[in-house]
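User: Quick sanity check before I run a bigger batch. Here is a single chain. Can you write out its predicted 3D structure?
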Amino acid sequence: MPEPLRLMAVHAHPDDESSKGAAMMARYVDEGVDVLVVTCTGGERGSILNPALQHRKDIEDNISEIRRAEMDRARAILGVRQHWLGFVDSGLPEGDPLPPLPEGCFALVPLEEATETLVKEVRSFRPHVITTYDEFGGYPHPDHIRTHEISVAAFDAAADPDKFPDAGEPWQPLKLYYDVGFSVERTEALHEAMLRLGLESPFAEWRERRAKWGERRQPNLTTRVPVGDWFERRDAALLAHATQVDPNGWFFSIPLDIQREVWPTDDFERVRSLVDSPLPEDDLFAGIRDRVTS
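Assistant: Done. Predicted structure follows.
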Protein backbone atom coordinates (compact mmCIF):
# COMPACT_ATOMS: atom_id res chain seq x y z
CA MET A 1 0.00 0.00 0.00
CA PRO A 2 1.43 3.45 -0.87
CA GLU A 3 2.93 5.43 1.99
CA PRO A 4 0.77 8.44 2.97
CA LEU A 5 2.18 11.91 2.61
CA ARG A 6 2.87 13.58 5.95
CA LEU A 7 2.98 17.27 6.85
CA MET A 8 4.09 18.75 10.19
CA ALA A 9 3.15 22.37 10.98
CA VAL A 10 5.08 23.76 13.97
CA HIS A 11 3.36 26.63 15.78
CA ALA A 12 4.02 28.65 18.90
CA HIS A 13 0.56 28.88 20.48
CA PRO A 14 -2.92 27.42 20.12
CA ASP A 15 -4.71 29.59 17.52
CA ASP A 16 -1.55 30.12 15.42
CA GLU A 17 -2.38 27.03 13.38
CA SER A 18 -5.76 28.53 12.49
CA SER A 19 -4.49 31.98 11.46
CA LYS A 20 -1.47 30.73 9.48
CA GLY A 21 -1.82 28.09 6.80
CA ALA A 22 -5.10 26.63 8.07
CA ALA A 23 -6.78 26.49 4.67
CA MET A 24 -3.71 24.72 3.30
CA MET A 25 -3.90 22.09 6.04
CA ALA A 26 -7.64 21.57 5.53
CA ARG A 27 -7.06 21.06 1.80
CA TYR A 28 -4.31 18.51 2.34
CA VAL A 29 -6.36 16.65 4.97
CA ASP A 30 -9.18 16.34 2.43
CA GLU A 31 -6.67 14.98 -0.09
CA GLY A 32 -5.60 12.24 2.32
CA VAL A 33 -2.41 13.81 3.70
CA ASP A 34 -1.62 13.03 7.33
CA VAL A 35 -1.25 16.46 8.96
CA LEU A 36 0.17 17.01 12.45
CA VAL A 37 0.14 20.37 14.21
CA VAL A 38 2.85 20.67 16.86
CA THR A 39 2.00 23.41 19.37
CA CYS A 40 5.04 24.52 21.34
CA THR A 41 3.28 26.24 24.28
CA GLY A 42 -0.09 26.24 25.96
CA GLY A 43 -0.73 29.93 25.33
CA GLU A 44 -1.00 30.51 29.08
CA ARG A 45 0.04 34.16 28.88
CA GLY A 46 -1.99 35.11 25.84
CA SER A 47 -4.26 38.12 26.10
CA ILE A 48 -8.02 37.70 25.78
CA LEU A 49 -8.69 39.48 22.50
CA ASN A 50 -12.41 38.89 22.12
CA PRO A 51 -14.12 41.98 23.64
CA ALA A 52 -17.13 39.91 24.63
CA LEU A 53 -14.98 37.68 26.84
CA GLN A 54 -12.66 40.23 28.42
CA HIS A 55 -12.60 40.98 32.16
CA ARG A 56 -14.21 37.67 33.05
CA LYS A 57 -12.55 36.09 36.07
CA ASP A 58 -13.83 32.62 35.21
CA ILE A 59 -11.93 32.80 31.91
CA GLU A 60 -8.82 34.49 33.27
CA ASP A 61 -8.52 31.93 36.08
CA ASN A 62 -8.86 28.96 33.72
CA ILE A 63 -7.19 30.21 30.58
CA SER A 64 -4.94 27.15 30.17
CA GLU A 65 -7.84 24.70 30.20
CA ILE A 66 -9.97 26.96 28.02
CA ARG A 67 -7.27 27.31 25.40
CA ARG A 68 -6.79 23.53 25.31
CA ALA A 69 -10.51 23.09 24.73
CA GLU A 70 -10.42 25.72 21.99
CA MET A 71 -7.53 23.86 20.36
CA ASP A 72 -9.52 20.63 20.46
CA ARG A 73 -12.38 22.30 18.60
CA ALA A 74 -10.10 23.86 15.99
CA ARG A 75 -8.26 20.56 15.48
CA ALA A 76 -11.54 18.75 14.82
CA ILE A 77 -12.69 21.41 12.34
CA LEU A 78 -9.45 21.23 10.36
CA GLY A 79 -9.23 17.44 10.61
CA VAL A 80 -5.60 17.48 11.74
CA ARG A 81 -3.77 15.68 14.49
CA GLN A 82 -2.20 17.84 17.19
CA HIS A 83 0.50 17.39 19.85
CA TRP A 84 1.70 19.73 22.60
CA LEU A 85 5.43 20.17 23.17
CA GLY A 86 4.65 21.25 26.73
CA PHE A 87 6.57 24.52 27.01
CA VAL A 88 5.21 27.56 28.85
CA ASP A 89 4.10 30.68 26.99
CA SER A 90 6.64 33.51 27.27
CA GLY A 91 4.11 36.30 26.87
CA LEU A 92 4.64 39.32 24.65
CA PRO A 93 6.82 41.82 26.52
CA GLU A 94 5.78 45.43 26.18
CA GLY A 95 7.36 48.70 27.29
CA ASP A 96 10.54 50.67 26.81
CA PRO A 97 12.78 49.17 27.92
CA LEU A 98 11.21 45.74 27.53
CA PRO A 99 10.79 43.80 30.79
CA PRO A 100 12.67 40.53 31.25
CA LEU A 101 10.99 37.34 30.13
CA PRO A 102 9.42 35.22 32.89
CA GLU A 103 11.58 32.48 34.36
CA GLY A 104 11.02 29.05 32.86
CA CYS A 105 9.24 30.29 29.74
CA PHE A 106 9.71 28.74 26.30
CA ALA A 107 11.96 31.48 24.96
CA LEU A 108 14.42 30.92 27.82
CA VAL A 109 14.60 27.13 27.55
CA PRO A 110 18.08 26.20 26.25
CA LEU A 111 17.96 25.80 22.49
CA GLU A 112 19.40 22.26 22.54
CA GLU A 113 16.79 21.11 25.06
CA ALA A 114 13.88 22.59 23.15
CA THR A 115 15.23 21.28 19.84
CA GLU A 116 15.52 17.74 21.16
CA THR A 117 11.87 17.82 22.20
CA LEU A 118 10.86 18.71 18.64
CA VAL A 119 13.30 16.20 17.12
CA LYS A 120 11.45 13.47 19.04
CA GLU A 121 8.22 14.56 17.35
CA VAL A 122 9.86 14.65 13.92
CA ARG A 123 11.37 11.20 14.29
CA SER A 124 8.12 9.79 15.61
CA PHE A 125 5.80 11.33 12.99
CA ARG A 126 8.30 11.17 10.08
CA PRO A 127 7.03 14.14 8.08
CA HIS A 128 7.98 14.70 4.47
CA VAL A 129 7.32 18.44 4.79
CA ILE A 130 7.67 20.81 7.76
CA THR A 131 6.26 24.33 7.93
CA THR A 132 7.18 26.97 10.50
CA TYR A 133 7.94 30.71 10.84
CA ASP A 134 10.78 32.78 9.44
CA GLU A 135 13.60 34.20 11.57
CA PHE A 136 11.37 37.14 12.47
CA GLY A 137 8.76 34.76 13.82
CA GLY A 138 6.13 36.15 11.45
CA TYR A 139 5.94 38.93 14.04
CA PRO A 140 8.37 39.65 16.88
CA HIS A 141 6.93 37.47 19.63
CA PRO A 142 9.69 35.64 21.52
CA ASP A 143 7.82 32.32 21.26
CA HIS A 144 7.49 32.67 17.49
CA ILE A 145 11.18 33.40 17.15
CA ARG A 146 12.10 30.41 19.31
CA THR A 147 9.68 28.25 17.30
CA HIS A 148 11.59 29.24 14.16
CA GLU A 149 14.91 28.42 15.82
CA ILE A 150 13.97 24.94 17.01
CA SER A 151 12.15 24.08 13.77
CA VAL A 152 15.18 24.83 11.61
CA ALA A 153 17.49 23.08 14.07
CA ALA A 154 15.23 20.02 14.24
CA PHE A 155 14.96 19.80 10.45
CA ASP A 156 18.75 19.74 10.21
CA ALA A 157 19.28 17.37 13.16
CA ALA A 158 16.51 14.81 12.75
CA ALA A 159 18.41 12.67 10.21
CA ASP A 160 21.74 12.75 12.07
CA PRO A 161 22.17 9.64 14.26
CA ASP A 162 24.81 11.44 16.31
CA LYS A 163 22.38 14.23 17.25
CA PHE A 164 20.02 13.44 20.12
CA PRO A 165 20.55 9.65 19.99
CA ASP A 166 17.82 9.10 22.61
CA ALA A 167 15.19 10.94 20.53
CA GLY A 168 14.24 8.03 18.25
CA GLU A 169 15.31 6.58 14.93
CA PRO A 170 16.71 9.21 12.55
CA TRP A 171 14.38 10.60 9.88
CA GLN A 172 15.07 12.97 7.01
CA PRO A 173 12.32 15.46 6.19
CA LEU A 174 12.47 16.49 2.56
CA LYS A 175 11.30 20.10 2.58
CA LEU A 176 11.11 23.01 5.00
CA TYR A 177 8.89 26.05 4.43
CA TYR A 178 8.28 29.33 6.18
CA ASP A 179 4.64 30.38 6.38
CA VAL A 180 4.39 33.81 4.77
CA GLY A 181 0.86 34.76 5.85
CA PHE A 182 -0.05 38.37 5.12
CA SER A 183 2.82 39.41 2.89
CA VAL A 184 3.16 42.98 1.68
CA GLU A 185 1.97 41.81 -1.75
CA ARG A 186 -1.13 40.10 -0.38
CA THR A 187 -1.95 42.96 1.96
CA GLU A 188 -1.66 45.57 -0.77
CA ALA A 189 -3.71 43.53 -3.23
CA LEU A 190 -6.58 43.08 -0.76
CA HIS A 191 -6.33 46.70 0.39
CA GLU A 192 -6.65 48.01 -3.16
CA ALA A 193 -9.52 45.65 -3.96
CA MET A 194 -11.50 46.80 -0.93
CA LEU A 195 -11.02 50.47 -1.81
CA ARG A 196 -11.88 49.84 -5.45
CA LEU A 197 -15.22 48.38 -4.38
CA GLY A 198 -15.94 51.29 -2.06
CA LEU A 199 -15.39 49.22 1.08
CA GLU A 200 -13.40 50.18 4.13
CA SER A 201 -10.04 48.43 4.18
CA PRO A 202 -8.79 47.00 7.48
CA PHE A 203 -5.17 47.36 6.46
CA ALA A 204 -4.44 50.96 7.42
CA GLU A 205 -3.85 49.91 11.02
CA TRP A 206 -2.00 46.81 9.78
CA ARG A 207 0.42 49.00 7.83
CA GLU A 208 1.08 51.14 10.92
CA ARG A 209 1.73 48.05 13.02
CA ARG A 210 4.16 46.60 10.50
CA ALA A 211 6.00 49.93 10.33
CA LYS A 212 6.68 49.72 14.07
CA TRP A 213 8.45 46.40 13.56
CA GLY A 214 11.19 48.13 11.60
CA GLU A 215 13.14 46.90 8.61
CA ARG A 216 13.16 43.18 7.95
CA ARG A 217 14.01 40.78 5.17
CA GLN A 218 11.09 40.44 2.78
CA PRO A 219 10.06 36.81 2.20
CA ASN A 220 10.47 35.17 -1.17
CA LEU A 221 7.08 33.79 -2.22
CA THR A 222 8.22 30.52 -3.77
CA THR A 223 5.08 28.47 -3.23
CA ARG A 224 1.42 29.50 -3.48
CA VAL A 225 -1.05 26.74 -2.64
CA PRO A 226 -4.59 27.31 -4.03
CA VAL A 227 -6.99 27.06 -1.08
CA GLY A 228 -9.96 29.30 -1.86
CA ASP A 229 -12.42 26.44 -1.36
CA TRP A 230 -11.21 25.96 2.21
CA PHE A 231 -11.54 29.54 3.50
CA GLU A 232 -14.73 28.73 5.41
CA ARG A 233 -12.97 25.90 7.29
CA ARG A 234 -10.06 28.21 8.08
CA ASP A 235 -12.38 30.86 9.50
CA ALA A 236 -14.40 28.34 11.51
CA ALA A 237 -11.19 26.97 13.05
CA LEU A 238 -10.03 30.45 13.99
CA LEU A 239 -13.39 31.31 15.54
CA ALA A 240 -13.08 28.15 17.64
CA HIS A 241 -10.31 30.00 19.50
CA ALA A 242 -12.97 32.26 20.97
CA THR A 243 -10.74 33.97 23.54
CA GLN A 244 -8.13 34.85 20.94
CA VAL A 245 -10.09 36.47 18.15
CA ASP A 246 -12.65 39.22 17.78
CA PRO A 247 -15.39 37.77 15.53
CA ASN A 248 -16.04 41.32 14.35
CA GLY A 249 -12.37 42.10 13.83
CA TRP A 250 -10.31 42.84 10.75
CA PHE A 251 -9.56 39.22 9.85
CA PHE A 252 -13.24 38.60 9.09
CA SER A 253 -13.97 41.95 7.46
CA ILE A 254 -12.76 40.99 3.98
CA PRO A 255 -15.55 39.21 2.07
CA LEU A 256 -14.58 35.69 1.06
CA ASP A 257 -15.52 36.29 -2.57
CA ILE A 258 -12.98 39.13 -2.68
CA GLN A 259 -10.34 36.93 -1.10
CA ARG A 260 -11.02 34.15 -3.60
CA GLU A 261 -10.77 36.56 -6.52
CA VAL A 262 -7.76 38.58 -5.38
CA TRP A 263 -5.60 36.18 -3.35
CA PRO A 264 -6.92 32.59 -3.19
CA THR A 265 -3.70 31.01 -1.92
CA ASP A 266 -1.77 30.24 1.24
CA ASP A 267 1.80 31.35 0.64
CA PHE A 268 5.15 29.92 1.68
CA GLU A 269 8.86 30.43 1.28
CA ARG A 270 10.81 27.25 0.58
CA VAL A 271 14.07 27.30 2.53
CA ARG A 272 15.19 23.65 2.36
CA SER A 273 14.53 21.05 -0.32
CA LEU A 274 16.19 17.68 -0.82
CA VAL A 275 14.10 16.92 -3.91
CA ASP A 276 14.03 18.38 -7.39
CA SER A 277 11.11 20.78 -7.67
CA PRO A 278 11.35 23.85 -9.93
CA LEU A 279 10.18 27.18 -8.53
CA PRO A 280 7.64 28.65 -8.31
CA GLU A 281 5.47 25.85 -6.91
CA ASP A 282 1.77 25.43 -6.19
CA ASP A 283 2.15 22.37 -3.95
CA LEU A 284 4.23 21.80 -0.81
CA PHE A 285 4.64 18.19 -1.94
CA ALA A 286 5.94 19.04 -5.41
CA GLY A 287 8.81 16.66 -6.15
CA ILE A 288 7.71 14.37 -3.31
CA ARG A 289 4.41 12.87 -4.45
CA ASP A 290 5.77 10.45 -7.05
CA ARG A 291 8.72 9.57 -4.85
CA VAL A 292 6.57 8.64 -1.86
CA THR A 293 3.24 7.39 -3.18
CA SER A 294 4.26 5.45 -6.30
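The radius of gyration is 19 Å.

User: Great, the batch can go ahead then.
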